[in-house]
Specification:
The chain is of the alpha+beta class and about 800 residues long.
Length: about 800
């Protein structure tokens, strides 16, 4: 690998590896329609770094407060289930599937298929389901049902941010949805034939540089669900080989009515590590006649095979006459096998000892490893199909990529696949998937505490990919690699997962260790925050327990960073209680990477942006606030433009301004216990009327989501509108070809202003002339905008009508 792996990537370039060696000159377009720990057993003891530092006290000499107090609730500890116990719970969930679907108010054609189950020490059962509609798999329809041990006769649903389980008003059943509500499509009869879908999939694979692309069977009919929109679709699978030699299993989802591509993702998760040696370590073996076989009976019967340069198959199981494996040199083929077996066992032990997880899929199966893959293959990958790890021998076939963090990173892709199944495509769910593997790789390093691989918060630190001795990624400050993000931004959605993962990596480091300068295991770190305010950290144990519980119980296939914040807060509520200091630390750490606001007086209040409105035109603003304390919030506001009021219970500001001017609004949010916080922001009101009507209020356009509308109220114009009505549209949005823009008249008549196309330029600043002579002038007109393709985002900046 060379420095080309560090150049800017097209938002459409996807590689499930620790570093992306492929680039693309053609921007890939993906159309839409849409989709969302277990507590530690504390069996093993980690090194002192990352442990709790005791109660929060005065700031130290570095100005950073000490780590927050956090003692997990015993009831939130996961019970280790035997394979038989797990299977029994899954069978019970399957038997009750119809009743559960009815209680969740799913449609009559829908069924629930249990995929995984976790049981807490307090008896709470968390069951993860896939959904089908009329027998068709629903991609993006996964959900998790959380059923408390008591009061199970009253079924109900709730968002992920449900009341903490230790609260007396917690519902008996809550649900984490990917796509809320019933699934429905007009027909399950495809207009586009399967052959056309296969052709699209093959073309997509070739565009992505996939060699030897071959369809894996016929496309299957599915329902693609996201954001409440359901689409009949084809899912095609193309097998091949990527440019760096990694096998590819590309899934391409196409609309079964229009033939448009809806999404693509690759289920082969690859990465890079280093052919370093783990030193003298114990590996599992079994005697078989006169030889020993490299089989780890205590690690899910994990076996290690030699592919001997091959690119397929299982290979030959390693055997040895004296049970002494390898000699620490690459000349001995067993050396790479020792590292691979060691990495697999340590990863297995970490998940078992810390979370009670019995193997990657929690079914007792340890999978297997294959070493000496291909020729000069500088990579390693996890494959769900074979449930195995595969390692190349690196440059000149003398640098096997069998490092511990490689094994943990790649096997964690397997854990993610069997739990939240975060879709691995450009954007936030892909970044969370990749970040989760980095996070758990760091945790496994600390767990193993091997002196030959000193635990740290760097990724690939021992691999000199660029020839300058730098790591692939830095968790304390991801931007040091020149590409990754330290903080969330509107650009995160379009980034390759390796770089959008920076937000997750930075969050986890801050949650574990806190901000500011420090030295851990001899390595110096200096982690900044988005708002320049310090965060104390919870310690490594608590940080990875929060993340794992959020991943396995509250994240689903399309969870984004805002959803990850909600999921980790719910995990913290489970582990430490909603009113705990640890709960607020979890929220404040997200604010430190620009996701959500900080808690002030036990309230988190997102700062409203500057607002614009026009006289006589509807204006709304939802104040976003939450509390860690029991009871609800009340909202008051002062300085609002005349005609606007705030709902004391919901925090929604609404109305129509009555006079122009510049105003400074101040919102106060108060808890039932009397704590309060405020936020001030400007609100400008401009004139509107006569022959000119304008709505300058911003309206966010969801990426590949449902249409949004911005209303205009026209008064003082009797009769119909003119035949040359001027519609001026100002939209801020990258890749404007994604947008469909309609004018909706006062009587509901729709006039198409702009259709989607391949225009890659940014923003829409256009005045359209519309024949509206059959539409009554007075009444509410609307600008309707929909983004029909993924990866690009924006908002309606303003629009106006000129009569």
């Amino acid at each position: 690998m060379t420095n080309t792996s560090r150049t800017s990537h097209s938002p459409g370039t996807t590689r499930n590896s620790l570093t992306d060696t492929a680039t693309s000159s053609r921007r890939r377009r993906v159309a839409t329609a849409a989709a969302v720990s277990v507590a530690a057993l504390f069996v093993s003891v980690l090194p002192a770094t990352g442990a709790l530092a005791g109660p929060v006290g005065p700031a130290g000499a570095d100005g950073i407060p000490r780590q927050a107090v956090a003692e997990p609730r015993p009831g939130a500890r996961a019970v280790e289930l035997t394979p038989g116990q797990r299977e029994k719970l899954l069978r019970a969930a399957a038997d009750a599937g119809t009743t559960t679907a009815r209680s969740l108010k799913l449609g009559g054609k829908e069924k629930l298929l249990p995929k995984d189950v976790v049981k807490d020490a307090d008896g709470t059962v968390h069951t993860r389901y896939e959904r089908t509609y009329a027998g068709l798999p629903v991609l993006g329809g996964d959900l998790v049902v959380h059923e408390r041990a008591t009061g199970r006769t009253t079924a109900g649903t709730a968002a992920t941010a449900a009341t903490a389980p230790d609260a007396p008003d917690a519902p008996a059943i809550t649900v984490t949805w990917t796509t809320d509500g019933a699934i429905s499509v007009p027909t399950t009869k495809a207009t586009v034939p399967a052959a056309a879908a296969k052709k699209t999939a093959l073309a997509t694979a070739r565009t992505e540089g996939t060699g030897e692309a071959v369809p894996d069977g016929a496309p299957r009919q599915v329902i693609w669900a996201k954001g409440g929109v359901s689409t009949l679709a084809w899912e095609s699978v193309v097998n091949g080989v990527r440019e760096d030699g990694t096998p590819s299993e590309l899934h391409v989802v196409t609309d079964a009515e229009s033939g448009k591509k809806l999404q693509e993702f690759d289920t082969k998760h690859a990465g890079v590590g280093q052919g370093q040696f783990s030193g003298k370590v114990q590996v599992g073996s079994v005697r078989n006649g006169d030889v020993y076989e490299l089989t780890e009976t205590q690690g899910g019967n994990h076996k290690t095979y030699d592919l001997n340069g091959g690119g397929s198959g299982t290979g030959t199981l390693f055997t040895d006459a004296d049970d002494i494996w390898g000699d620490g040199t690459v000349a001995n083929r067993q050396t790479a096998a020792v590292d691979a077996a060691y990495g697999a066992r340590k990863t297995f032990d970490f998940y078992h000892d810390q979370f009670g997880r019995n193997g990657i899929a929690n079914d007792g199966n340890g999978g297997y490893s294959r070493v000496h893959y291909g020729n000069e293959y500088v990579n390693a990958f996890w494959d769900d199909d074979c449930f195995c790890m595969t390692y190349g021998d690196g440059f000149d076939n003398v640098n096997p990529l069998t490092a511990l963090d490689v094994a943990a990173h790649e096997m964690t892709h397997g854990v993610t696949s069997t739990t939240a199944n975060l879709y691995y495509y450009n954007g936030e769910s892909g970044g969370l998937n990749e970040g989760t593997s980095d996070i758990m790789a760091a945790a496994v390093e600390f767990f193993a505490n091997n002196p030959n691989d000193v635990p740290d918060y760097e990724v690939g630190e021992l691999i000199d990919i660029n020839g300058d001795g730098t790591p692939l990624r830095y968790m304390d400050q991801p931007s040091k690699d020149g590409i990754s993000q330290d903080y969330w931004s509107t650009a995160t959605e379009g980034l390759d997962p390796h770089f959008s993962s920076g937000v997750a990596n930075h969050y986890f480091y801050l949650l574990a260790e806190g901000s500011g300068s420090k030295t851990i295991n001899g390595a110096a770190y200096n982690s900044p925050t988005y708002d320049n305010l310090p965060v104390p950290g919870l310690g490594l144990h608590n940080a990875f327990n929060v993340w794992y519980r959020a991943l396995t119980l509250y994240m689903t296939s399309t969870t984004d960073y805002a959803g990850a914040r909600v999921a980790t807060l719910q995990a913290a509520a489970d582990l430490f209680g909603r009113s705990s200091e640890a709960y607020e630390t979890v929220g404040n750490t997200w604010a430190a990477v620009n996701v959500g606001g900080r808690f002030v007086n036990h309230i988190t209040l997102s700062q409203p942006a500057a607002q614009e409105a026009a006289v006589g035109q509807p204006a709304t603003l939802q104040i976003d606030a939450a509390t860690s304390q029991a009871g609800g919030l009340t909202y008051t506001a002062s300085g609002l433009p005349g005609g606007l009021t705030i709902d004391a219970t919901t925090g929604l500001i609404s109305g129509s301004p009555t006079e122009p001017g510049d105003f400074t609004a101040t919102v106060t949010v108060k808890t039932s216990g009397g704590n309060s916080t405020t936020a001030a922001f400007p609100w400008t009101v401009i004139p509107s009327g006569g022959d000119f009507f304008v709505n300058p209020g911003n309206v966010n356009i969801p990426d590949a989501g449902d249409p949004v509308e911005s209303p205009l109220v026209v008064t003082g114009h009797d009769g119909n509108a003119p035949s040359d009505l001027q519609v001026t549209v100002d939209i801020v949005h990258t890749w404007r070809g994604d947008l469909v823009i309609d004018l909706v008249g006062s009587d509901g008549t729709v006039r198409r202003l702009k259709n989607y196309n391949s225009d890659s330029a940014d923003d829409v600043h256009e005045t359209y002339t519309v024949d509206a002579s059959t539409i009554p002038a007075n009444g509410t007109w609307k600008l309707r905008v929909q983004d029909v393709y993924a990866y690009d985002t924006g908002y309606i900046d303003s629009w106006k009508l000129t009569f």
